[in-house]
Design brief:
2 domains; alpha/beta; 22 helices
């Protein structure tokens, strides 16, 4: 009889897990092709535009921006395109499938370490994570890297439970995925380093530490050599990246906000780039205040959980390990941003979410009796975690349905240019991704980036109008297109073009401005 009841409980448990995995897939495949590919996804197309595996290796080594440090994804994407084509759905579905896979792997990791209740809540948090859904719908490396890091953490979890079965198998699989992770993305060095330091700092078993990390270090040597021999590896200034343009404290807050509730919870990035950013932030004060309160309650609850472990002499509890991994990863990511002088954004911090997603349910584990003085604190912590999940659902609603959070709309911009081009009208782009113009069927818009690439010169030169006239072969009308015009000083384009042209109209799409300039008559 007892066995039957136990089997029924386990059956209900795994049915609920299957439902969560189904929801995870539904949320990640939902509206997968609704938005246009954006600028960075165009880079993925460019970096995987090859016909052979050998060409793929050569292409990724010579990429001009920081993508050269994440080669494995583009090599895999080359094969993926050979099998499934290059529709928006096909390109993004690799990240989608791996995003679902990461959730399943992290669930089993939490199940092995903490048990089924903790694992259930880990899966709930991951399923509705706006951060995870967002990057599971993007043809970029972040979901791919999180999948490899999840496997790395799963095989390493044998250390945390002191399980002696299949130790050697887990050890070598951990080493293999560590090496693959370092080869796939340079930021995996940060996560791997945090694992390594936390292992010896928390468990203090030098012999065990060597047994796990020497094979990983040995297999990672080729990856390390590869990265160190890349052009620009020792001189970050030569690599085209988004340089640090905001105070580092804003970068820190942006990262924490992004991994907790996604980048569609508060103000959109477009809103924050205006001159009225302070007023915009104040208009979102209820959401931001709620996030601050929820985050503070969860942080205090986690501190309390760690203090309880210490009081009971459990300094080697997995909660200490994951706390250490998160803190060290965070500090290393911050240090890299400062040294490389680059903006630190949530997508570059995907590795922070893994220890945090496994650690968060720990605040639900402490349930004192009704007479305990700490009962109210435990209830507050539970409310905070549930609130965090609800906030992520709200963020997902913005992500799917609120056009203010839409990414670069190349699809609509190109359609407009094709429709409005004529024998007397020429379209040019001053800043955009040319591969995406081609992808959406426009091969006639002229590339004018050398006349004013903000990543190189800062502003167009004073002869912009004359050079546009020459480039367009003296056309009467010019459709001047700019993707992400915030990189240019406000009003500069209109002022420089006014020397020879009159601004007739302007059309805006997400992160796009298309100016219609008509040539002045003498």
């Amino acid at each position: 009889m007892m066995m039957t009841i136990k089997n029924k409980r386990w059956s209900k448990y795994y049915i609920s897990i299957l439902i969560l995995v189904f929801l995870s897939g539904l949320l990640r495949f939902f509206m997968l092709s609704s938005q246009s590919l954006w600028y960075d996804e165009g880079l993925t197309l460019t970096n995987s535009d090859v016909s052979t595996f050998q060409e793929s290796i050569s292409r990724v080594r010579n990429i001009g921006n920081s993508d050269r440090f994440q080669p494995l994804y583009f090599i895999v994407m080359f094969w993926w395109r050979q099998l499934f084509g290059e529709s928006e759905f096909a390109l993004r579905s690799l990240s989608t499938i791996l995003g679902i896979g990461s959730n399943v792997i992290l669930f089993f990791t939490a199940l092995r370490i903490y048990g089924k209740k903790h694992a259930f809540w880990t899966l709930v948090i991951l399923t509705f994570s706006s951060f995870c859904v967002n990057y599971s719908q993007e043809a970029r490396i972040y979901s791919f890297a999180m999948f490899i890091a999840s496997l790395q953490l799963y095989f390493f979890s044998k250390v945390l439970v002191k399980d002696q079965t299949h130790q050697n198998t887990s050890k070598w699989l951990f080493s293999i995925f560590t090496a693959l992770g370092i080869f796939s993305n340079i930021t995996m060095w940060l996560f791997t380093t945090a694992l390594c330091i936390s292992h010896i700092a928390i468990y203090r078993n030098f012999k065990q530490w060597l047994q796990w990390w020497l094979p990983a270090a040995f297999l990672s040597i080729p990856s390390v050599i590869y990265h160190l021999t890349l052009p620009g590896a020792t001189d970050p200034e030569t690599i085209a990246i988004n340089r640090l343009g905001l105070p580092i404290i804003q970068n820190i807050l942006f990262v924490l906000n992004g991994i907790l509730v996604g980048t569609t919870y508060g103000p959109s990035m477009e809103q924050l780039r205006g001159d009225n950013r302070v007023q915009v932030m104040l208009s979102y004060w209820p959401q931001l205040l709620l996030l601050l309160i929820v985050g503070t309650v969860i942080l205090l609850a986690l501190v309390r959980v760690l203090l309880i472990h210490k009081k009971k002499g459990r300094e080697q509890h997995p909660d200490y390990f994951f706390t250490s991994v998160f803190i060290i990863s965070f500090l290393l990511g911050l240090l890299l941003a400062i040294v490389a002088k680059t903006n630190w954004v949530p997508r570059h911090s995907y590795y922070l979410w893994l220890p945090l997603a496994i650690l968060l349910p720990s605040v639900l584990s402490q349930r004192p009796s009704i007479t305990s003085k700490r009962y109210g604190v435990s209830q507050l912590a539970q409310i905070a975690v549930i609130s965090l999940i609800v906030m992520n659902i709200y963020s997902l609603g913005n992500y799917y349905f609120n056009g203010d959070y839409q990414r670069d709309d190349y699809r609509s911009a190109v359609q407009y240019l094709i429709k409005n081009r004529s024998s007397s009208t020429q379209s040019v782009f001053l800043f955009a991704n040319p591969r995406l113009f081609e992808y959406y069927g426009d091969s006639l818009t002229l590339d004018a980036r050398n006349l004013g690439d903000p990543l190189k010169k800062g502003i167009p030169n004073e002869k912009l109008a004359e050079e546009i006239e020459k480039l367009t072969n003296n056309k009467d009308t010019v459709l001047l297109t700019i993707n992400r015009d915030y990189q240019f000083p406000k009003g500069l384009i209109e002022r420089e073009m006014s020397k020879l042209y009159k601004l007739d109209s302007q059309v805006d799409f997400a992160y796009f401005k298309i100016y219609r300039f008509v040539k002045k008559k003498n």
